[in-house]
Amino acid sequence: SAAAISVNKSTTVTWTNNDTDPHTVTADDNSFTSPTLNKGDTYSHAFADIGTVNYHCKIHPAMTGSVTVK
């Protein structure tokens, strides 16, 4: 499942789908979204602004996480 992480400003975060189901990484504010990630696919996003970005999977909306940028 997704998690809450903290990173420094200008960090690039990479998500890897290790699940057999397809998923997306979609910001709640739509500031970014990945294509559909199949098993083994990755998606990276650089976080330039300080703050917390909550995200979810468009396919499984109950799957959520957050990135706090310091």
Main attributes of the structure:
70 residues, mainly beta, 4-stranded mixed sheet, two-stranded antiparallel ribbon, globular
Structural write-up:
The termini are far apart. 0% of the residues lie in helices and 43% in strands. It has strands at 4-7, 11-16, 26-27, 42-47, 51-56, 64-69. The chain contains no helices and six strands. With 70 residues, it is mostly beta strands.
State the gist of this model.
Helix content is 0%, strand content 43%.
Secondary-structure-derived class: mainly beta
Radius of gyration based on Cα positions: 11 Å
The number of strands is: 6
How far apart are the first and last residues' alpha carbons, in Å?
23 Å
Choose one word for the global shape. globular
Strand content: 35-45%
What is the share of helical residues? Answer: under 10%
Total helices: the number is 0
Q: What's the order of the H and E elements?
A: EEEEEE
The poorly predicted ranges are none
Mean pLDDT: 96
